Amino acid sequence: MSEHSVTVVRLDSVLSAECEEIVVGVQELLLARGVIRLNDRRDALWQPSEWKPGPAARIAAVEPVDWFDAFLDTANNGVDIRGERHAYHPVENDEAPRCPRCAAGAPTTYTHCYGDWLEEWMTAGREPLFTCDRCGWSGLVGDWTGQFSVLIGAPAVTFHNWPPLSPAFTTDIRAALGGRTGIVASHW
Asked: How far is CA 117 from the centre of its chain?
């Protein structure tokens, strides 16, 4: 059986005190809307997340699916809200992003130097800048389009094995995180 997650992550750097305020704000937002509730039966293998789906998750957060009730009984269906900087990788979904201007694939420097720029981004905190081989547009890697590329940042909210999140809900999460945000859809 496979698993998936969707992470919404802030790409802009924030001071640790501001990051903690954002994490608390996101938690309060999700709790107030009934999207999450405290996981009172936490288990390292079955339900590792601090938060689990709340009573209003079906109407306030996800697209309608006929399997929502089964999702509520799924292992690892929680939500993680992290304040520390972390790399979010799409795992089996890994796919280079596309140019937002002309939709060309990422430049060859993205793929040929992947390990180098990723390590520098993780250790030194410098998000890499790439230039499109086709149209010449330049932008930070988080500004390229796609949900199946690696992103690094904090804070972040990860929904494990949830039905598709609604666009309006995703917009609200991005607004609560503030700054530039990206989305990583992982599958393993």
From this structure: 20
Which H or E run contains 187? Answer: strand 181-187
AA letter at 103: A
Instruction: List the one residue out of 22, 9, 23 whose CA is nearest residue 142.
Output: 9
The single-letter DSSP state of residue 162 is P
* 36, 30 contact by CB (below 8 A): yes
The 10 Å Cβ neighbour count of residue 110 is 18
At 165, phi and psi to the nearest 5? -75, 145
Question: Contact, 186 vs 5, CB < 8 A?
Answer: yes
Report the alpha-carbon distance of residue 85 to residue 19 in Å, rounded.
10
- Tens digit of pLDDT for each residue in 143-187? 999 999 999 999 999 999 999 999 999 999 999 999 999 999 999
Which pTM value belongs to this model? 0.95
